[in-house]
Amino acid sequence: MSNFNITTLGQFIIERQNEYRDAKGAFSRLLRDIGIAAKVISREVNKAGLAEILGEAGHDNVQGEAVKKLDVIANELFIDCLTRGGECCAIASEENEDIIQIDSPVSKNAKYIVTLDPLDGSSNIDVNVSIGTIFSIYKRITQTGTPATTEDFFQCGNKAVAAGYVIYGSSTMLVYTTGNGVNGFTLDPSIGEFCLSHLNMKFPKDGTVYSLNEGNKAAFPDFVNKYIDWCQQTDKDTKRPYSARYIGSMVADVHRNLNKGGIFIYPPTAKAPKGKLRLLYECNPMSFIIEQAGGIATTGTERILDIVPSALHQRVPIILGSENMVKKVLEFMK
Ligand code: P6P
Predict the structure, then answer these.
(1) Of 29, 92, 161, 296, which one has the greatest count of Cβ atoms within 10 A?
(2) Hey, where are the domains in the chain?
(3) Least confident piece of the model among 46-60, 84-98, 152-166
(4) Is any atom of ligand 1 closer than 6 Å to the C-beta of 213?
(5) Measured between alpha carbons, how far is 35 from 196 in angstroms, rounded to an integer?
(6) pLDDT value of residue 45
């Protein structure tokens, strides 16, 4: 161990490369490319307030040119980094209706595809609330060198080779799994490196925080409202009433629960009868991470990772968090 006592993301990936069955360098380079994009986005997000002054936040700038919102910038950054990295041949992004084919000479024979929410919760940027990037990585199943198809992207979440998120908060952290546990890295801007800070993260089996948008209560399924009422009853043995915490940014709400214990629910609502959150690039990646840390992720009737996708931007309801809290919610379904 170096006397600097830090392990960078790059060093960690190399050290763990033999853990990942397909231990070629390609996968390690793909994670590196995602880390590069995340560092640039962190810099842009952390000056978002200034963007207003500089006339950049989605308004026309002083030259009268329409300037892009940060989530569009983030999307273009990821596409650029993955295109130049040469390890990814296609992306399904929250920002793009269709699959983004990456047919640059270095990438068109790549064997990985990426699902991506480049900047989730971007409505929170203007009010300085934590936001995040969510991604997952799959091996393509159609022929290498040909354009990727929905067949590649409609793989179940349980086929992902990796998933992760970046949270742009009081610090910028990258949390990911390759199916061998979950590890967290905090960006040290002074050296421009993600440094290992949360080794082998475990989702607490119990928690006292419930996280959902109670403004939609009137439209919630009965079992959800019964569970909320249960959370709000006083009972010393089960440390109730629980605390309600809802940031409105999935990455921030889930990251808090992963660290402290808790449950995150986005049930069907009047506005979103199938739930609001997207399967391919929000629910599947977060569910892979949460399961790898020992939590549970379900629609209420089905394990999220077992759902066979049928549309790129398909929405699903989600109950995700501490094992014993999710099991309690499911009791109210009976
Ligand atoms: P609501 C952000 O827009 C997002 O996609 C997730 O990050 C977040 O959990 C959810 O929507 C918040 O939705 O309807 O409660 O504002």
Answers:
(1) 92
(2) 9-198, 209-333
(3) 46-60
(4) yes
(5) 13
(6) 86
Residue 241: is the preceding peptide bond cis (ω within 30°)? yes
Ligand 1 centroid to Cα of residue 279, in Å, is 14
- Ligand 1 nearest atom to the CA of residue 123, by list position: 3
Write down the pTM of the prediction.
0.94
pLDDT attached to residue 66: 61
Instruction: Give the C-alpha separation, 117 to 92, whole Å.
Output: 9
Q: Which range (91-95, 104-108, 253-257, 300-304) has the least confidence?
A: 104-108
Q: In terms of Cα–Cα distance, which of 330, 320, 329, 246 is closest to 284?
A: 320
Report how far residue 116's alpha carbon sits from residue 251's, in angstroms, rounded to the nearest whole number: 13
Question: pLDDT tens digit string along 279-320?
Answer: 999 999 999 999 999 999 999 999 999 999 999 999 999 999
Tokens linked to 129:
């609330």
- Ligand 1, atom 4: nearest CA belongs to which residue? 121
How far away, in angstroms, is 121 Cα from ligand 1 center?
6
For residue 55, what pLDDT band results from cuts at 50, 70 and 90? very low
Distance 132 CA to ligand 1 centre (A): 12
The lowest-confidence range among 27-31, 221-225, 226-230, 272-276 is 27-31
Question: Helix (H, G, I), strand (E, B), or coil: what is residue 182?
Answer: strand
117 lines ligand 1 (CB under 6 A): no
121 lines ligand 1 (CB under 6 A): yes
Domain 209-333 has CATH 3.40.50.10490: no
Q: Is the CB of 250 under 6 A from ligand 1?
A: yes
Would the CB of 258 count as within 6 Å of ligand 1? no
CATH of 9-198 among 3.30.540.10, 1.20.1640.10, 3.30.1330.30, 3.90.580.10: 3.30.540.10
Q: Which atom of ligand 1 is nearest to the CA of 249?
A: 7
165-192 per-position pLDDT tens digit: 999 999 999 999 999 999 999 999 999 9
Contacts of 267 (CB under 8 A, 6+ apart): 212, 216, 220, 221, 224, 275, 300, 317, 319
CB 317 within 8 A of CB 267: yes
